[in-house]
Fold this protein.
Amino acid sequence: MSANSAEPTADLTVSLVKGGRTKIRYPAGLLGDDGTRVVVRAPWAGDGTRDFGFVRLEPGDVFTEYYWRDRWYAVKEVRAADGRVKGWYCDITRPAVRTGAELVVEDLDLDLWRSADGGDVRRLDEDEFAASGLTERDPGAAAAAVAALDELERLARAGGFGDLLA
């Protein structure tokens, strides 16, 4: 399968949960599961084009998504329809849980973006995280989330996620 193909090698449903509710569910092709890390590939699952200002996600984009059962984040490589890498969108999450053909990931509001050339690294949604109340409800999870965001930012600024995704 090419790096920009969205054709699944096996069926898996990714369910992103936020605030106790399913935010989005989408089919993905399972590329690998070594017991710790799950890798899937899927086309952009959003409706139409979403312009964040720093990146446009649009029909035809393909995401290769890396989830861990022992880490508090997910890293998603974003490619345009022509195969060009747009960058990496990282979600801060609780560790992923796979049950059969479903992968459930709880979004903790914090995100990080790294452009393909590494010139743009930005923390996102820190205001949403602060407003979520997680720090008061679950201080341990909040601390793990902030530490995960710090780790991803260090990696992004030090050259990217190559070793992490290899």
